[in-house]
Amino acid sequence: MSTVVLVAAVVAAGLIAGLFYAYSCSVMPGLARGDDKTFVEAMRGINVAIVNPVFMLTFLGAPLLAGVAIFLNPGPRPWVIAGFVCLAAMLVITGALNIPLNNALESGGTDYAALRAQFETSWVRWNVLRTIASTAGFGCLVAALLTRRG
């Protein structure tokens, strides 16, 4: 059972790290090329679409499974603990920084230039940080899986 949970944590962490990485290297640079209205309306649409069961399962599942794996994993627990801490940091960054920016963008009206100016640089910065945190979490969990005994 401990191997199944750890593998599930690795898969979920890889998916969420990959999602945030894709935003960092393609979605946000692509949207940056558009005009203010296109940028704001696209982000508004993305922010609504992403709140779905598949995303939530990986987003919340990765740290939850890593946390469970801490208690089930007889092998290299320090790697699992480090993975959990990184994934928990990703949750905190998202909840404390990215989501409030998303909410402000959604309720901000139609002054697209002002909304973009208040949103884009900060959101991208925090997304890079959560990309690093989730990727580190994924790497730690992979290390735990690779160095497992028995």
Automatic annotation (TrEMBL):
User: Where are the bilayer-spanning segments?
Assistant: 50-72, 79-99, 128-147
Keyword list (alphabetical) reads: Membrane, Transmembrane, Transmembrane helix
Q: Which InterPro entries match?
A: Anthrone_oxy
In terms of Pfam families, this protein maps to: Anthrone_oxy
Q: What is this protein called?
A: Anthrone oxygenase family protein
Q: Which organism is it from?
A: Amycolatopsis heterodermiae
